[in-house]
Amino acid sequence: MSVTDEFLRRHPDWVARYGERARRHGVEDAGYHVEFLAAAVEAGSLPAFEEYVRWTAGVLAARGIGVEFLAENLVQVEHRLSGDLPPGDRDGVAPFLAAGLDACKRAPTQTALAREHPLDATVQVFVSALLAAQRKAAVTIALDALARSGSIADLYVELFQAALYEIGRRWQRNDISVADEHMATAIVQYVLAQVYERLPIPSPTKGRMLIAGVAGELHQLGPNIVADVLEWHGWDVRFLGTNVPTSGILGAIEQHRPDVLGLSLTMLTSLPQFRETVASVRGRLRDSCPKIVVGGRAFGVAGTHWRDCGADAFAADVREALRILG
Predict the structure, then answer these.
(1) Which terminus of the chain is more exposed, N or C, with fewer CB under 10 A?
(2) CATH for 117-198, among 1.10.1240.10, 3.20.20.105, 3.40.1010.10, 1.10.287.3610?
(3) Which tens digits make up the pLDDT trace of 178-193?
(4) In this predicted structure, what is the pLDDT of residue 86?
(5) Candidates 3.40.50.280, 3.40.50.720, 1.10.10.350, 3.20.190.10; CATH matching 208-325
(6) Pair type for strands 260-264 and 313-315
């Protein structure tokens, strides 16, 4: 709250222009900055906080808010933390805020963001179908792509994953609304179900696997894709969904007795829950603990921190998961 109060004292025109929304969104944004800062510090990953700042700068720029306001907000967060934290903790946080301020200087322009990811023609058509709410067309495009490639992994990575990334970028650029983004994600989930019904799932020969997102993890499509592809490659997979409490994961392990436990983490802010889950699984099962393989964007930007959390391997995408698991 004090960070937002300081910002609005410096910019009274924001209150005149936006009214109470200026304070509400200011408090919310400052909370996000501190939350992601704390997660990046815990992970020991400067790149994770730099990526968050670049992403935030792009979101704000697309909504007419200059990057200089984000930089000012980060300075105000730094001043507040300097008064609240003991010296040792201040020294630990300072490099992250410095990296964030440097990322503000290097944040891409909206034009650069728009040109950064040229799309394959099939992905373009698929994204158009998603945003037009054309479920049947989206299914047809996906099945046609599968027939051409013959690889379920290629379909999931080069069509579904690419389309979802593009949808996220369009929301970041303010080209589509939150409702559009949610609708597109829901249609992809529908298409996944339609494709799955048509897959010739073989008898499991490679072992048992349990896949879940830990408590606080809300992004379901990534682990859903991994579950489908691994099942198609001969694994006996149980997909629990996401936001699963540690007790639920432990109970499912006792029932299914998996050889591999796959855990998904998209946001570093759920890192404490991830640590708790891994520690609980290892503490309860000890020598009979399944191999723990993790995936998700959080570990993609946090280097080898997955290893420090007690996991055995990290897969950047479903193809990497196939390589690791065979």
Answers:
(1) C
(2) 1.10.1240.10
(3) 999 999 999 999 999 9
(4) 85
(5) 3.40.50.280
(6) unpaired
Angstrom distance (rounded) from CA 244 to CA 247:
8
3-state secondary structure the chain: CHHHHHHHHHCHHHHHHHCHHHHHHHHHHHHHHHHHHHHHHHHCCHHHHHHHHHHHHHHHHHCCCCHHHHHHHHHHHHHHHHHHCCHHHHHHHHHHHHHHHHHHHCCCCHHHHHHCCCCCHHHHHHHHHHHCCCHHHHHHHHHHHHHHHCCHHHHHHHHHHHHHHHHHHHHHCCCCCHHHHHHHHHHHHHHHHHHHHHCCCCCCCCCEEEEEEECCCCCCHHHHHHHHHHHHCCCEEEECCCCECHHHHHHHHHHHCCCEEEEECCCHHHHHHHHHHHHHHHHHHHHHCCEEEEECHHHHCCCCHHHHCCCCEEECCHHHHHHHHC
The token pair at 183 is: 């609708």
Going by C-beta distance under 8 Å and a sequence separation of 6 or more, which residues neighbour residue 92? 41
**Whether the predicted pLDDT of 238 surpasses 80:** yes
Q: Burial of 163 by CB count in 10 Å (0-12 exposed, 13-18 middle, 19+ buried)? A: buried
CATH number of the domain at 2-113, out of 2.60.40.1180, 1.10.10.10, 3.50.30.40, 1.10.490.20?
1.10.490.20
Q: Which sequence spans correspond to the domains of the chain?
A: 2-113, 117-198, 208-325
Partners of 200 in the β-ladder = none
Q: What is the pTM of this model?
A: 0.81
119-132 pLDDT tens trace = 788 999 999 999 99
